[in-house]
Amino acid sequence: KMETISSVITHKDKQGIGRITINRPDAYNALSLACMQSLIGAFKLLSADDGVRVIILSGAGKGFCAGHDLAEMRSNSDKEFQQLTFSTCATLMLSIIQSPKPVIAKVHGVATAAGCQLVASCDLAVAEETTRFATPGVNLGLFCSTPMVALSRNVSPKHAMEMLLLGDFISAQRAHEMGFINYLARADELEQRVDELAAKIASKSSLTLKIGKRAFYQQLEKNLADAYDYCGQVMVENMMAKDAQEGITAFIEKRTPLWCDE
After folding, report:
1. DSSP single-letter state for residue 116
2. pLDDT score for 1
3. What is the pLDDT of residue 250?
4. What is the spatial order of strands in the sheet that 110-112 belongs to?
5. How far is CA 217 from the centre of its chain?
6. Which of 138, 183, 146, 141 is nearest to 163 (CA)?
7. N or C, where is the chain less crowded by C-beta within 10 Å?
8. Using the 8-state DSSP alphabet, how is residue 180 labeled?
């Protein structure tokens, strides 16, 4: 079937908060190829927008995201289509990591397989307390090898392997204990909790956030000595920025800084 153009809804408000909503509620927001391509486009759009300071990713309907569209993958069983699906998925996950804006996952219902991978790829995650998470591929004969990449960079190896080998659902509370989720919220408080978090981040210098987010993911891949060397250089460059000068001056003068994002 043809997919409507609105499998992803993008919105931004005057406070500098960008919102991306996966809009395939009838399919539990499964990541069809077209949906992933739309998401990549949405992240590109908001990442390049100077008026956007932070991005919230959420899912429409009953759940956040049920992962890849298995019906689509089964009906297009040739190898080229599978390769395109997984390379597009990797591009999507990298577009979140490489976005200069912090990305918050606003999670409810279920986040499974590649949906779990999306949550793991976001910088922060807030979940409604009845949300359930799983990497259930092992139960289908298709191990969650690509979700594993993001998952294993979020939680300890034992926790990652527990989810990957068992394929069972875990509760939001368990996900929180594992450090997979930053905050839990009641259903009626999820919106407010995420918006408060986004507003707090939006009040910072967007230049500083951009420098820091990039450095965070770069240093993760380096050995300890190289990470210090790299981050030392980042701090030197950051120190030269107008916003660092203003921020330090404001701190000494006991006033609120006025960011110019330079």
Report:
1. H
2. 40
3. 97
4. 110-112, 132-134, 170-171
5. 13
6. 138
7. N
8. S
Q: What is the mean pLDDT of each run of 10 residues along the chain (262 residues)?
A: 70 95 97 97 97 97 97 93 97 98 98 98 98 97 96 97 98 98 98 98 96 98 98 98 97 97 93
pLDDT recorded at residue 19: 98
Residue type, 8: V
3-class DSSP state for residue 53?
A: coil
- Please give the order of strands across the beta sheet that includes 103-107: 8-12, 17-22, 54-59, 103-107, 124-128, 183-185
Q: Do the bridges between strand 8-12 and strand 170-171 make them parallel or antiparallel, or are there none, so unpaired?
A: unpaired
Residue with tokens 């993760």: 220
CB 17, CB 202: distance < 8 Å = yes
Inter-axis angle of helices 114-121 and 79-97, to 10 degrees?
20
Query: Which residue in the block uniquely carries the two structure tokens 């399919």?
Result: 27
CB 89 within 8 A of CB 146: yes
- Whole-angstrom CA distances from 107 to 31, 204, 240 are 15, 24, 38
Sign of CA dihedral 193, 195, 199, 201: positive
With residues binned 3-state (H G I as helix, E B as strand, rest as coil), the percentages for the chain, rounded to 5, are 50, 15, 30
DSSP three-state, residue 25: helix
